[in-house]
Amino acid sequence: MPMRMNKKPEKPVMKNGNKGMEKEKGVIKISAKKPTAVYTPYLLSTLMSEGKVEIIARGKAMVKAIDLAEVTRHKLVKGCKIEKIETNTESMPLRDSTRNINVSTIRITLIK
Questions:
Q1: Which letter, b or e, does each residue of 43-71 get, where b requires 16 or more Cβ atoms within 10 Å of its Cβ?
Q2: 41 in a domain, yes or no?
Q3: Is 64 in contact with 36 (CB distance < 8 Å)?
Q4: Mean predicted confidence (pLDDT) in 8-33
Q5: What is the dihedral sign for C-alpha 83, 87, 88, 92?
Q6: pTM of this structure
Q7: Distance between CA 44 and CA 40 in Å, rounded?
Q8: What is the Cα 92 distance to its own chain's centre?
Q9: Number of domains in the chain
Q10: How wide is the angle at C-alpha 31 spanned by C-alphas 26 and 37, nearest 5°?
Q11: Is pLDDT above 60 for 75?
Q12: CATH number of residue 72's parent domain
C-alpha cells in the first residue's frame, strides 16, 4: 500500500488577470475553482501571526469569500471581527475579443 504524504498548504492565489501583481502580505485571493477549505489553513496562520487578513474575490468566488469570513468569525477564531468590507466593479477584457466586461469584486478585512 503506498503511503500518502501530507503536503503543506500552499498560499492560494487567484490567477485570473493578476499578472505582474506583487504578492501582498496578509492577503488571500479566492478562486472559484478551489474548495473553500483550501484557504482555511493559510487564513488562520496569517490571522494569528499578523492579527489582520484581507480576503479578496471577484465574480463567482465572492460567495466563497463571504463564507470563509463568516466561518472564521463564528467557528474558528473567537473575537475575530470584520474591520471593513469593500465592493467594487472592475472592467476586464474578454479573452478573444476587444470588448470589456464588468466583474464585481469584494475585499473583506478581518482583524483578531
A1: bbebbeeeeebbbbbbbebbebbbebbee
A2: yes
A3: yes
A4: 63
A5: positive
A6: 0.75
A7: 6
A8: 19
A9: 1
A10: 75
A11: yes
A12: 3.30.110.20
Q: What SS3 string covers the chain?
A: CCCCCCCCCCCCCCCCCCCCCCCCCCEEECCCCCCHHHCHHHHHHHHHHHCEEEEEEEHHHHHHHHHHHHHHHHHHCCCCEEEEEEEEEEEEECCCCCCEEEEEEEEEEEEC
Closest by Cα among 12, 10, 9, 43 to 26:
43
Amino acid at 98: T
Q: Looking up cell 472592475, which residue turns up? A: 90
Tens of pLDDT, residues 39-72 = 999 999 999 999 999 999 999 999 999 999 999 9
Cell triple for 39: 484557504
Q: For residue 50, give its domain range.
A: 27-111
